[in-house]
Amino acid sequence: MTSLYSNQTLKIYNSLSGEKEIFTPLHTGNVGLYVCGPTVYSNVHLGNVRTFMSFDMIYRYLLHLGFKVRYVRNITDAGHLTDDGNVENDRFVKQSRLEKLEPMEVVQKYTVDFRKVLDEFNFLPPTIEPTATGHIVEQIELTQKLIDTGFAYESQGSVYFDVVEYNKRGLNYGELNNRNIDDLIANTRDLDGQNEKKNPQDFALWKKASPAHIMRWNSPWGEGFPGWHLECTAMSTKYLGQEFDIHGGGMDLKFPHHECEIAQGKACNGHAPVRYWMHTNMLTMNGLRMSKSTGNYILPMQLVNGDNDFFEKEFHPSIVRFCFMQAHYRSVLDISNDAMMASEKGFNRLMEAMDKLKSLPASSSSSLDITAWKNVCYEAMNDDFNTPIMISHLFEGVRFINIVNDGTATLNATDLALLEQTMNTFVYDVLGLVNEKESGSQSHVKKLEGTVALLIEMRNQARADRNFALSDQIRDQLLALGIQLKDGKEGTTFTL
Length: 496
Ligand code: AMP
Ligand code: ZN
Description:
By secondary structure, this protein is α/β, with parallel strands linked by helices. It has three domains: about 5-280, Rossmann fold (3-Layer(aba) Sandwich), CATH 3.40.50; about 285-430, Isoleucyl-tRNA Synthetase, Domain 1 (Orthogonal Bundle), CATH 1.10.730; about 435-495. Helix content is about 45%, strand content about 15%. The chain binds adenosine monophosphate and zinc ion.
């Protein structure tokens, strides 16, 4: 059987060329995909989730097209300094002091949180999820190679990449961001380690650890820890090779992180490491970029359980997913109460149609062109994963379902099967939405909570009527089922 990808022309916007290019993988039928993962020193916020969700959709579509995808998304658990670049401000060391935890306890705590969020939002797991701390040896080897070839130098126990030397050899640091070296010098702030560097724009491959720095490893240059940029080069090279198909991340990683990855790759191997660079745009909330540092952020679970000051109610994870997918991954998306309420309406309309779809009657002939409609769904996705256009076609599908259902249009059995298969593919497999009615656990918990709340109300009434036999019976029988009621100042609460 031929794979779907052989009949489709997928175009991807390549940030390196600034153009949409036809996607041709290095090895027919196989795709190597690397996405920069989270820095696990705090909870992921909803903005981070948007970026990872965009790549989840991209991964899902590549799989649907029949590609065999090796999807590597790392966990950054070492070496990511805060913006001022001060070694004492290693994110993990700082957080571990704050929380009075071992740095690896910080890492574990927030890795567990990250995985919980991904499960809740129906993410497919990557095929490899490597950690920076698990690849220190590879990072030391790469650093040594860069010193040996003259692209890096040691200075006072740290090792820096020599950007001026790189450019002298005819390479072009700044190519991804259209920046030249003079701009870079002008824009370099007075960061830690400047006096150790030959040139202000040189970046660290390895940092010497001060006595107080707890995360430290032995190296040929003394005890220290790896630079953040190098970890992605080490892990992508190890699992995807010196050249691979797609590298992704949020737009804010374009500079300097991805620029440095290109320089490291070219310096090590003599050619570009990545064929297609993909960057997702930012999530804003009420017009401002979502970010931990400004305080304008919401945790994903706060949106799901309604425990926040920004939204009037809670939203099912699939509604959040639907909202995100209604924007193209390269556009800014603003999330607000109105936007979420509108997404909920749209999502419910879609799911009502999906329920009807299962019992539509087949006729002897078709009055709708389902094949043409299916083709435009694929065209939208092939045009740089244009999910908002694809969703607008899904609503044309919803219209088809409704008019076949009320008898104003007809479909023969073949077209009916095609309509059902196409809707299922895009709604469930590619967008990753979940039909609440069918998904079980979420809606079961809701039903159970509603039932217990009702029993609490009946118990309150029984107590008001001085019918203590009944009120005790409700409490005791719930307890026997493992549901404990607690009476407090604010009323009765329960744990399931
Ligand atoms: P970090 O853990 O800070 O490295 O971020 C993980 C990913 O989330 C990176 O790819 C960032 O570019 C991305 N990211 C951070 N803030 C936002 C935002 N407001 N909207 C979308 N993506 C974001
Ligand atoms: Zn990275």
